[in-house]
Design brief:
7 strands; 6 helices; alpha+beta; about 50% helix
């Protein structure tokens, strides 16, 4: 077995105890007649357990646990640039909306996640020389797909503009030259236009859903058209403004 395969096996063994414990609790819950009496007191523990299971599953599906075996951040460098609240996707399409923490270090790219959403996911630091970047997109928004490791041991897709800011933060001075990954230059205007199209599409779909759903059963108390459109427009509009401020 290769070193990489061995480490992945160790990672799975390390977290399998959590799965076994929760499955045992589930069997007790569905077979114990006294569940209705103690369930309100046990629910917080059950919720925390399920949260740990879900976040652990996402850690495997995203490839984070495999990456942290090789590229764990040792904390010896100060970042040149910090970008928090970033959005992207990782591994097998695992969405990380607004919970990514990206760092530009002199030696590599730092990737972290809010601890609440990744209690077992350690911060990563991937050397610049082991990252390959290629142009991509996601729902009209210009993105960059990063292949992490050589050979590739994972992937990360983030905003093209955020990626350019991270790469540009690394100076090529003092006789030191680093072979940096490719960069796709994207203007603020292009990013704003893409996010506006996203907002328009999401608002239209949500508004149509509320409008036709509220009238599907012939109810006289149908939701007014202004609310069907105005509510999702306001909610998603605020979200897009926050995202634009973070990624531009």
């Amino acid at each position: 077995m290769s070193a990489l395969g061995g480490k992945r096996t160790l990672s799975w063994t390390r977290y399998s105890a959590v799965w076994q414990c929760l499955f045992f609790c589930y069997r007790i819950a569905v077979t114990d007649d006294s569940v209705p009496q103690w369930f309100p007191y046990a629910f917080p523990f059950f919720f925390v357990g399920m949260w740990l299971v879900v976040t652990t599953m996402l850690g495997f599906l995203s490839g984070w646990f495999g990456l942290q075996e090789w590229y764990a951040d040792d904390g010896t460098e100060e970042p040149l640039l910090k970008l928090s609240g970033q959005s992207g996707s990782m591994g097998a399409g695992v969405a990380l909306s607004g919970i990514l923490k990206l760092r530009a270090y002199p030696s590599g790219l730092g990737v972290g996640i809010w601890r609440l959403f990744g209690p077992f996911q350690k911060p990563l630091k991937i050397p610049w020389s082991e990252i390959e970047a290629e142009k991509s997109s996601s729902f009209f928004l210009p993105m960059m797909k990063l292949r992490l490791g050589k050979p590739a041991n994972g992937s990360l897709k983030i905003s093209a503009r955020s990626w350019a800011r991270l790469v540009d933060a690394v100076p090529q001075t003092d006789g030191r030259w680093i072979q940096m990954p490719a960069v796709e230059r994207v203007s603020r205007r292009s990013t704003a236009q893409a996010m506006f199209v996203q907002w328009l599409a999401i608002t239209s779909l949500a508004g149509a859903f509320f409008y036709f759903t509220s009238r599907s059963n012939g109810s006289q108390a149908a939701v007014p058209l202004s609310i069907c459109i105005g509510f999702p427009a306001a909610v998603f509009g605020i979200g897009q403004l926050i995202r634009y401020a973070r990624e531009s």
